[in-house]
Design goal:
phosphoprotein, alpha/beta, six-stranded mixed β-sheet, 20% strand, EAL_dom, 28 strands
């Protein structure tokens, strides 16, 4: 019976001693399992070590450490961290010394992985069920039942449990490091810096010194070229080189294979793959110095998946940054980057000039040859600018066809810019003669910085365009004052319109011979909160340039229609209301709808309203004017050409316009009696109008002599201070009663 038991024990020993081939421990090879025996009986120490002599667990030998008391065990625990199992006697210095040591191990030393096996020769001192329930132990055996085989079974089970807990803990720590790495790396901007961080974090995860190489592949931008974007240690000299130029075959071939096969490689060294969508990938070569086990590989797979998202974000961020600060067509800094240069990086402004160079009539080139050809023209201009201005001159694209340049006075000056455009440009086989208008600012003479400097150059450029295309103009303080005053005026106009500071007055129009009132012209006025009147010739052009004329114009039309309704309600059935219209209103797609709504809301008919357009408007865009005038006529409106004689009318075009009146400008009325030229023009306008069957009305009549003279010339109608000044609606109604 004893032999049978021994044979069974031996078979069991062979079974337990056979390592499991499918499991890979997370420990260096040949590292023994460390077992601490705590017992006040020296024979127990000797018997235990003798029984386990020559046996291995999970393919590794056992090493025993000894403590004869709980106090001595505490000292050993203070120096030993890698303990797999503690074989612990319950009763030593005291009846519960072993149990108190359990609490010390778990609560004070925080050693949660080590397996604790209680052994007792006196079970009564620590009942098994109560002890297992109250203390964090893993097994409880009496010394008598721990034969050689049973002791080996207990140790094997404990070691396996310890190994699994260590693996789980290592996995947890690895995942924590991956999360921490992601958090740390997410704060990094720029591909190279991010890649450097990846090398550092990767080496920390594997517990090695930073020795690695990272390369990037962005095929959309570099036609598939692979470049080294970050490196550490012995590879640091390879940064920013194409991978094809790396002279170390093992490095080059391994990275190429990793990118080609799109997977991690662990044979002959570690090379990791970071997939980032179509056409983009990263690979990291790391000198680990050992063969990675399954747990390491699992952590690296998680690391790569997590960090690949970070790589993708950094690439996208870099692309957004590039688009935010660089012009993709010309590969120049854009307006944002140029302003940064002016604002932050310009240390000494003395002797430096800023210029805005605007290519004249560039839109005509796009219209005639197409935008692709226009892009080639811009590239040709940039190439020549770089040749003439040299490397020490900063250059940027600050507008569609406008370039900002910054450099020494001698380089950035009208003569140099003129030299750029003296010779024709050859573009796609076409010979083009271009010109450019330039606004310049001497930085040493200005207190402005950043975007303010660019604004000053823009003001000078606009002044140059007003003088002559192809010319140059330096900025002056007076120009800046004018521009800023105009800006303040425009800002005040917006506020004034919102706060109802704008209002309409009416100047009566009469038949010259009978002085019978036939209507009135609606005129816009602006009175500020402090009671000042801003002249219309100051704020109307600003309203037109800014687009504010659209809502203001609608306000005038609606107000005039409502006043017309009041006049008709007062019995003035034949009263006509004249309203001035700007070209901006004419071009607005909702203009006709605005007129129709104004008529409907006021309850009046279009035949009692006359819209006045200037002669220059009538000639500016013939097709548009003819089309809109036809729509206006459909609503019943009559049309007058204002300021006639000040423009350059085509008589053939004038005949096509469906107009009802010609209005003689006040300047000709004033000159009619004092100069032969003024009299001649007034006579010509009146004769032309009568010849075309149009009514002629003169404005600015101030004296009886002027009225009589115009009657003599054949003029039909008029308005001016001789009859009445412009007046508010209430005064107009009272004036009509009189």
């Amino acid at each position: 019976m004893q032999e049978t038991t021994s044979a069974v024990d031996d078979d069991l020993l062979e079974l337990l001693d056979d390592p499991e081939h499918n499991e890979h421990e997370h420990r260096p090879q040949n590292r023994p399992w460390r077992i601490l025996i705590v017992d006040d009986d020296g024979d127990v120490h000797k018997a235990t070590e003798l029984a386990m002599q020559g046996l291995t667990v999970e393919g590794q030998p056992l090493v025993f450490l000894h403590a004869s008391s709980a106090a001595q065990a505490r000292q050993v625990l203070g120096t030993e961290e890698d303990l797999a199992v503690v074989l612990l006697d319950v009763v030593m210095e005291s009846e519960d010394a072993g149990l108190q040591l359990v609490r010390h191990i778990r609560d004070e030393r925080r050693m949660n992985a080590v397996r604790i096996v209680l052994r007792t020769g006196q079970p009564g001192y620590a009942p098994e069920i109560e002890t297992v329930q109250a203390y964090d132990i893993n097994d409880y055996k009496t010394k008598s039942e721990l034969t050689r085989t049973r002791l080996y079974t207990v140790l094997t089970a404990a070691v396996r449990s310890y190994r699994q807990i260590c693996a789980l803990e290592a996995n947890r720590r690895g995942l924590e490091m991956i999360v921490e790495s992601s958090t740390s790396l997410s704060r990094m901007r720029g591909l190279s810096r991010f890649a450097e961080g990846v090398v550092t974090q990767l080496c920390a995860l594997l517990g090695i010194l930073p020795e690695g190489l990272v390369c990037a592949q962005v095929s959309n931008d570099t036609q598939g070229e692979v470049r080294i974007v970050a490196a550490a240690g012995q590879y640091s000299g390879l940064i920013d080189r194409p991978l094809a130029q790396v002279k170390i075959p093992a490095v080059r071939e391994r990275l190429e294979r990793c990118l080609r096969e799109q997977k991690n490689l662990y044979d002959d060294g570690t090379c990791l793959y970071f997939g980032m969508g179509p056409g983009r990938a990263m690979a990291a070569l790391v000198d680990v110095g050992r063969e990675l086990d399954e747990l390491d590989q699992q952590l690296l797979r998680a690391f790569c998946s997590n960090i690949a998202v970070g790589f993708e974000n950094v690439v996208l961020y870099s692309q957004l940054l590039d688009q935010a600060y660089n012009d993709p067509l010309l590969r120049l800094p854009n307006r944002n980057r140029f302003v940064e240069l002016l604002d932050k990086n310009l240390k000494d402004p003395s002797g430096v000039t800023l210029a805005l160079i605007d290519i004249d009539d560039f839109s005509d080139i796009n219209d005639a040859f197409g935008h692709h050809f226009g892009d080639q023209v811009l590239q040709a201009v940039v190439h020549r600018l770089a040749e003439v201005l040299g490397l020490n001159t900063a250059m940027a694209r600050v507008g569609a066809d406008t370039f900002g340049v910054l450099g020494e006075h001698g380089k950035v000056c009208p003569e140099t810019v003129q030299a750029v455009f003296t010779e024709p440009f050859m573009v796609a086989g076409e010979r083009l003669q271009l010109s450019a208008t330039t606004g310049l600012v001497r930085l040493g003479e200005s207190t402005a910085v950043g975007s303010e400097l660019l604004l000053d150059a823009q003001i000078a450029l606009k002044r140059a365009k007003q003088q002559q295309r192809g010319s140059s103009q330096y900025f002056s303080a007076a120009m800046g004052s004018d521009a800023r005053e105009r800006f303040k005026l425009l800002k005040g106009l917006r506020t004034g319109f919102e706060e109802s500071q704008l209002f309409v007055v009416y100047q009566p129009q009469v038949e010259l011979e009978s002085r019978r009132v036939i209507g009135a012209e609606a005129l816009l006025r602006w009175r500020t909160t402090d009671g000042r009147f801003i002249p219309p010739d100051q704020f109307i052009p600003l309203a037109e340039q800014s687009g504010l004329i659209i809502p203001i114009g609608e306000f005038v039309v609606r107000t005039a229609c409502q006043q017309l309704a009041k006049m008709r309600a007062l019995g003035h059935d034949s009263f006509r209301m004249a309203v001035n219209i700007s070209m901006a209103q004419f071009r607005h797609p909702g203009f006709i709808d605005t007129l129709a709504r104004a008529l409907k809301d006021a309850g009046v008919e279009g035949q009692h309203i006359e819209l006045e357009i200037t002669e220059s408007m009538a000639m500016e865009d013939a097709d548009l004017v003819l089309r809109v005038l036809a729509d206006i006529k459909q609503l019943g409106f009559s049309v007058a050409i204002d300021d006639f004689g000040t423009g350059f009318s085509s008589l053939s075009q004038l005949r096509q316009l469906q107009v009802d009146r010609l209005k003689i400008d006040r300047a000709f009325v004033q000159e009619a009696q004092s100069s032969t030229a003024g009299s001649t023009i007034a006579q010509m306008v009146i004769n032309l109008g009568r010849g075309l069957g149009l009514t002629v009305i003169a404005e600015g009549i101030e004296t009886e002599e002027q009225r009589q003279y115009l009657i003599g010339l054949g003029c039909h109608e008029g308005q001016g201070w001789l009859f009445a000044k412009p007046m508010p609606a209430e005064d107009l109604q009272a004036w009509m009663k009189r």
